[in-house]
Design brief:
CATH architecture of the largest domain: Up-down Bundle
Distance between the termini: 39 Å
CATH topology of the largest domain: Alpha-lytic protease prodomain-like
CATH superfamily of the largest domain: Cation efflux protein transmembrane domain
CATH class of the largest domain: Mainly Alpha
Number of strands: 3
Structural class: mainly alpha
Radius of gyration: 25 Å
Amino acid sequence: MHDHSHKTIDIIGAKLIFSVIFNLIITLSEIIGGFLSGSLALISDALHNLSDTGALLVSFFARKISKKPKNQRYTYGYKRAEIIAAIINTTILLAISATLLIEGTKKIINPSEIKTSLMLVIAYIGLFGNGLTAILLFSHSKENLNLKSSFLHILSDLFSSIAIIITGHLIARYNIWILDPIITFLIATYIIIESIKILKESLQIVMQATPEHIDINFLKEELESLPFVKDVHHIHSWTLDGHDVFLECHVKVESFDYDKCLKTIYEKLKALGFKHNTIQLELKECTDNCIA
């Protein structure tokens, strides 16, 4: 089991590094092709790909850091390194999207001719590269917010490439130059919407908010349904990385058999999906000196 875990980690790391190399190649191709063809959409996609390269590197190093063992200073370990990476990645995406909206506005005011044949060749190269990278990371995209944010970078690039190809063919056929900045607006809007979702979830984790799938009132009712429990209070639930959920609470009981009480409570919590629990048992009312 131990060897299999490290093999999985190495495979994911290798996929991330491969994705970095491939994105650098796509970025250089699109920057050169964008300037030569005069396509803002292609240049915007190149800048997006460049941010993806940085995002994938951040994800790679954050993943390595998150696997470091806990110590006396970081008693919870380094799992939140990946949450920090997700915040960095989405913040960069939002900044780039704002830049694209500004440049797209300038392009609408002053439209220019585009060499669609070169634009399409580069766009198809980007489509192939982004599609391959998306396939590599898809199976890991639900593991945590770090990998999810990296996959979002690649997925948005994939959509960008498809949109640019469609736009290129329409421009080549009908000479509607304004489609180039319009598609830039659509790409930027999509990135902003998806980035805000991940950023919001990441910030909630950093702020130690109760995970959305946990109902504190329901949890309180379930624990108070145990025959020896009189009251449950000071309930706190949080997650380190969007995956591992922690719980602590005070439980007022009517029994001196603390070991039996704790065993029953832990079994109840395990059935409810809680694995990392800290329970403080009390016989009297909790005083103001109790840590809330």
